[in-house]
């Protein structure tokens, strides 16, 4: 299994002989609702559009996961799998092969990969977006992704999971609290899934953020603090901090059969 991180929540996952582009933001700026004075993300290094993409996987319909400018640059015939909200965005942009996955539904790529949608981040009072479990059927290796740190109790049915991509720090607003939950939820999901490897997402990378919101957001936690928490709880999970744009192979081992 190979991964490439493209800043923020954007990943290229090479698994089961397929190339899956996850929540891509590769070109242009990141703005929510065209309100750039409130929040704007700017890439210091523009990432080339990856070639030979087999699937685009979208966890949410918001701009930092279904980035309109990036999706307009990609081939609209590439199959898209996403939350119902993200699938709506893809269809509006002209994608011709779009599958909406509700929670607990699955999607198979040939006979090599199974993708299962899990409950993810709540967006407002009535909408809960997706996390995903990606399973390589030949090896059994499984990857879990949730970009805001919301992990449902039902995940225990999937344990053990080999790779977890999720936040490990909090990003919080005064009076509101964490909008990205990492410090406690990452440890909880590590205990639940017993992953071989965890990789932080949603923060850092080769990106500059500006706008009023940046004066209010507070980051809490770090990779080193999280490693200490894992050690204190006798968890052997390895924390890998990916470098933006660099492809790397995950050091996974087959688990002993019980």
Overall form? globular
Ends apart, CA distance between termini: 23 Å
Largest sheet strand order: 7-6-5-3-2-1-19
Average of per-residue pLDDT values:
90
**Main β-sheet: number of strands, strand sense, barrel status?**
7 strands, mixed
Number of strands: 19
Can you write the helix and strand succession as a string?
Answer: EEEEEHEHEEEEEEEEHEEHEHEE
Measured as a percent range, the helix fraction is 10-25%
Topology-level CATH name: Metallo-beta-lactamase, Chain A
| Superfamily (CATH H level) name | Ribonuclease Z/Hydroxyacylglutathione hydrolase-like
What's the number of structural domains?
1
What is the overall number of helices?
A: 5
CATH architecture label: 4-Layer Sandwich
Uncertain regions spanning at least 5 consecutive residues? none
Rg over CA atoms, rounded to whole Å, is 17 Å
Relative strand content: 25-35%
């Amino acid at each position: 299994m190979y991964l490439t991180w493209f800043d923020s929540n954007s990943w290229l996952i090479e698994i089961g002989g397929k190339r899956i582009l996850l929540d891509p933001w590769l070109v242009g700026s990141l703005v929510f609702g065209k309100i750039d004075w409130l929040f704007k993300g700017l890439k210091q290094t523009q990432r080339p559009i990856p070639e030979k993409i087999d699937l685009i996987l979208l966890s949410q319909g918001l701009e930092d996961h279904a980035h309109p400018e990036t999706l307009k640059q990609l081939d609209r015939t590439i199959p898209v799998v996403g939350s119902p909200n993200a699938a709506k965005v893809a269809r509006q942009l002209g994608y011709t092969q779009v599958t909406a996955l509700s929670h607990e539904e699955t999607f198979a790529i040939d006979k090599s990969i199974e993708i299962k949608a899990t409950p993810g981040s709540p967006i407002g009072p009535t909408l809960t977006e997706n996390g995903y479990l990606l399973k390589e059927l030949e090896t059994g290796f499984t990857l879990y992704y949730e970009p805001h740190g919301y992990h449902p109790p039902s995940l225990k049915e999937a344990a053990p999971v080999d790779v977890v991509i999720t936040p490990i720090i909090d990003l919080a607003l005064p009076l509101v609290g964490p909008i990205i939950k990492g410090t406690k939820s990452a440890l909880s999901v590590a205990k639940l899934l017993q992953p071989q490897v965890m990789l932080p997402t949603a923060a850092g990378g080769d990106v500059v953020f500006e706008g009023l919101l940046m004066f209010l957001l507070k980051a809490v936690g770090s990779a080193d603090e999280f490693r200490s928490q894992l050690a204190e709880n006798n968890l052997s999970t390895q924390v890998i901090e990916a470098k933006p744009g660099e492809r790397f192979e995950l050091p996974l081992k087959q688990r002993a059969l019980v």
